[in-house]
Structures
1.
Amino acid sequence: MPDAALHVLKTLRAAGHEALLAGGCVRDFLLGLHPKDHDIATSATPDQVVGLFPGARTVGAHFGVVIVRHVEDHVEVATFRTDGSYKDGRRPQTVSFSTAEEDARRRDFTINGIFRDPVEDRIIDYVGGREDLEARLLRAIGDAHRRFEEDRLRLLRAVRFAATLDFAIEPATWAAVRAHAGGIGDVSAERIRDELVKILLHPNRLRGFDLLVDSGLMAGVLPEILVLQGVEQPPQWHPEGDVYVHTRLMLSLLPEQASLPLILAVLLHDIAKPATFTRDADGRIRFNGHDKLGAEMSGEILRRLKFPNDVIEPVTGMVERHMTFKDVQKMRHSTLRRLMARPSFADELELHRVDCLGSNGLLDNHEFLVAKQAEFASEPLLPRWLVTGTDLVKAGWPPGPDLGRMLTAVQNAQLEGVVTTREEALAWLGRQTPRA
Ligand code: ATP
Ligand code: MG
């Protein structure tokens, strides 16, 4: 364990206070996992903690949390407390400092309520967390209904821990999650997003997805996913079933370490299929424009969940372009190179791969692109351009949107190998008629 945590713990003890490791680090230690951080719970009040560690910063003054810095590291020290009554389904109105046992009981799940004394190598467990860890069971501490009523974020935390640890959920806890799922809307979008991201980034994301749906939480978090259920698709392209089955199957086919934009693009790539569904007189099903509308809908959904632009932009781009992959073998050389040069190309290729494997299984376009990647590996996908915007202006092109289009046209001529030197490019330009 890190020096900082041990140093803080020993200093508190030497001053006559109780001090124990608490929460996630004890759970992870007992599971043989690598803890993210080492939180300390203590009988010392925040003032006493600050007195022992000058320069320590009180963060959640209300909750008695102090951040102590030590060398390059920092440790969170929280005074043992009991939470008062909850009013808004989010946070207690009051807290009062109390004992280790009461502090264990205000925590969410038994596996998160165990203390550890690393000096004497002792486990202090007031809530039966150790047995549940051994049984791989997620169980709310105390009355599950009350605990989810107090703080609705715990609903998503239940799904997150069950999925990331691959634990079963104890029946009374599960019944309470389902009973309170409708209240998830009381939680801020940012906190919902943070839990969702943790669930989706974990390799066990399929279980997390299923738990979100089965608990009823998906209806409050991403209701658009549920609308995919029962949306029929052309059986010759989609033998697997409806759009929901297809999307879920794709999720299961992603590599363990998939990026967040890729995972979100999988969930959202066909999100506009319900809205664009049509059936021709001969019975043929179409989803015209589901890519464009899907990109718009994805943007709205991700903005609603307060995702940052560096997530929203690649996802909407991937959704908007996912249908172009069926045409790659027919594309002009220049179009193909521009497609392959996009920053999100690796994720787009993977989206296309799982899209195929999650439906008809035809990977010819994927294989074509992998071969092209190898073919282009030794040279930059997009070469240094032979002419610039300045050259165009000198050649008599008026500044404006036409200039951009003309520049793309010369670059395409270069990518197609029609022009290979600057002189040829300028001559090619000269043959185009400048517009007034
Ligand atoms: P992680 O590995 O994701 O950090 P963690 O268990 O450490 O998991 P934190 O959010 O860091 O989770 O919280 C630390 C501890 O505080 C938890 O283990 C739990 O005991 C308690 N806790 C956190 N959030 C809540 C909550 N909403 N309700 C009750 N107790 C909570
Ligand atoms: Mg933690």
Note: The pocket of adenosine-5'-triphosphate (ligand 1) is lined by residues 23-24, 36, 39, 107-108, 112-113, 151, 153-154 (CB under 6 Å).
2.
Amino acid sequence: MRIKPLLAATWVNIGLLFVTTAHAQNSNTIMVQVNKPVAEVQPAMWGVFFEDINLGADGGIYAELVKNRSFEFYQPLMGWKVTQSKFNEGSVLVMNRAEKNTANPRFIRITKDAAADTLSITNEGFRGMGIKKGLRYDFSVAYRQPAAGLTVLVELVSMAGKIIGGTTITPVVTANEVWSKAAASFTATDTSLKATLHIRFEGTGKIDLDMISLFPEDTWKKRPGGMRADMIQLLADMKPGFIRFPGGCVVEGHELSTRYQWKKTIGPVEERQLSINRWNSEFAHRPTPDYYQTFGLGFFEYFQLAEDIGASPLPILNCGMACQFNTAEVIPIDQLDPYVQDALDLIEFANGDVTTQWGKVRAQMGHSATFNLKMMGVGNENWGPQYVERLKIFSKAIKARYPDFKLVNSSGTDPNGERFDYLNSELRKMNADIIDEHYYRRPEWFLANAARYDNYPRNASKIFAGEYAAQSDHTVSIENKNNTETAIAEAAFMTGLERNAAVVNMASYAPLFAHIDGWQWTPDLIWVNNLQSYGTPNYYVQKLFSTNKGTNVVPALMDGKSISGQDSIYVSAVIDKNTGDVIVKLVNASDNPVSKIIELSGAKKFSATATLTLLKSNAAGDVNSFVHPDAVSPVTSATPVKGNKIAAVLPANSFSVYRVGMK
Ligand code: AHR
């Protein structure tokens, strides 16, 4: 609905309105009653959904710069190039010790017979390596050298072919085939968006190499082998209430053998068994044959990340079913036990004291304190009776041991239709704690469904809007854009989520990250290249809701009704008992400005000035980019409050957040 405003708002004509309409409600007045809280806003209401899609983990937040560092990709030398002055078939051999080391079977053996020859291997990184001038880089490698003879020269080479940093390693002789580790750091002399790593061998001899690694110094919290700080900072800035991980479809796997198994992602990184990423071959239109999961970023690191950014962890576990869009494999019921045990063990890993089997493992990894895990998802987008049958077994076992633990249950892939109706009814019969609903829909759907939860039952299962994003084109189209129109439609929908906080307890946009040269799915909240990251207009909408979450929903009414599309506007309001503010969120989804009076009631006094944070742009199609990362971003200003009234002018396609102090 796009309606032109009848009256341009100025303080003169709004003043007239004040005089003539006094305290009466009319369609120009939004009444916000701050002393009538209708529901609590859950502390974890607005969160983030992290999945290793679009190079989200490897090549993304996991700051490792070397791709295929332990030669475990299906093509063992994928990402590597061998260069030698004299062809020698055996100079670089891929060795397989599968029987001795199933988690990390492969390594390479370098043999160089003549000192005068040249031999090098080059790693291309994840679409190149982002290198910053003046920053320290930490190189490491596991090796065995039976006799002295080889020197290893490590060099970073820029896109222009210039050496921009390096170090030399003189390996010692390692006895009895025991692996040793060499590490050396150096400072980059220049910046390059897509550098490569050259490793040259001088002298003669043999050496075995594995786990060839390069990390920048400036990881998140400066943790060695850690995460990319700029990307994590964008998450931290959102102050998310929860972080859902590790997906998404990667939880399910293309087939059961490639499902996500958390136990394989903890402990020493060299013992974490690599797996193909199910997004590797998912879309013929966006093939990513080099997409694997090294699990350098594993469940311990996810819990630690949640703790770092003050978010409740929300792991999603495989329920004994592979992706139903792919193989749809299910594990027979009589073989489901190990899957259920994984769930129980994960709770112990997070919450068990250091004397428990899994609590001890956590402590050995450096975290004696518990991670305070309160909830878990069983299954991602699974559906059908086969899901319900398995879910019941999980629920029974988990609740028997942890009665207060909350379980998130899947309602499938879509917010309506037969699959949804079936699951919605079955899950409610089971008194599901939290039902996970997903919506990848056009902006019009989000506007039309802003009142979706107004009539959901209050005293039954709670809702997790677990994955949503407005699609400017259509789902899985590569034309989808993160533009103002989609962001505003999501903001409108989110006013409905907030208004219904009594039933909607959590929400997260999806997916979270995308690498500009390695994505499979769009739209995405945050876009990155090897050196930069920026938030989309949709990111700012999420951030504005999360950082203005408040503690209690209060009524915001026009003509006595909640505001969900009248005059193309969408409104919700909360009070924040911690700061003593009332926060009113208003979305104008039309192409024209709309003027309204916000009339506050229920407090003795309101501050004379409100803070207005406004997200708008000139055109609905506007986007952010690496060149203009803040083109569509919020601007904060002070605006007068006359007594208890604010003259709000809502620009076309805008999201306004008013924050007013109360006494
Ligand atoms: O967010 C991208 C994908 O969309 C998720 O992996 C899946 O759960 C959904 O279908």
Note: The longest strand covers residues 192-203.
